[in-house]
Amino acid sequence: MADPTKKRLLTPEEIKRCETYYGLGLTIQDMAALIGIGKATFERRMSDQPSLAEALLKGKAMADAQVTQSLFKQATSGKHPASTMFWLKCRKGWKDTPEDREEKAYKTPKTLKEDPES
């Protein structure tokens, strides 16, 4: 029988799996279930085992970089205008709101407006 006072540490293989899982977007609760421990235990291991916390950060960063690279390729290919617009909105602060469209729309100067009396 396992000693209940002894901590169950994650193995290097489990930590590597968690790195992949976190990069794929799994939650702490999901990862804990896949490893076979409770969420609270998993959260304690994140504090007790710095390598686990580092692996989660690395997994997220690697996944984010891969998606960013894919989006960049689509945005610059000329074949995916929605990706190009998304990139510009995120990176260059472009906006597409009704207020912006109204401000940028051509406005007739007051002197050229139709006279309501005519």
List keywords for this structure.
single chain; 118 residues; mainly alpha
What does this structure look like?
Helix 2 packs across helix 3 (39-48). The chain has helices spanning 12-23, 28-35, 39-48, 50-77, 81-92, 98-104. The chain has one domain (12-105). It is built from six helices and no strands. The longest helix is centred in the middle third of the chain and has 28 residues, at 50-77. It is 65% helix and 0% strand. With 118 residues, the chain is mostly helical. The model has no long low-confidence stretch (mean pLDDT 87).
Task: Report, as a whole number of angstroms, the end-to-end distance.
Answer: 98 Å
Count of DSSP strands: 0
* Overall outline: elongated
Give the domain tally. 1
Proportion of strand residues? under 5%
Tell me the series of helices and strands, N- to C-terminal.
Answer: HHHHHH
Count of helical stretches: 6
What would you report as the Rg, rounded to the nearest angstrom? 26 Å
Instruction: Tell me about the largest β-sheet.
Output: none
Quote the average pLDDT. Answer: 87
Class by alpha and beta content: mainly alpha
Give the helix proportion (percent range).
55-70%
- Low-confidence spans: none
Q: Quick gist of this model?
A:
The protein contains 6 helices and no strands. It has 118 residues and is an all-alpha fold. Helices cover 65% and strands 0% of the residues.
Secondary structure blueprint with pairings:
Layout: H1 12-23, H2 28-35, H3 39-48, H4 50-77, H5 81-92, H6 98-104
Helix pairs in contact: 1-4, 2-3, 3-4, 4-5
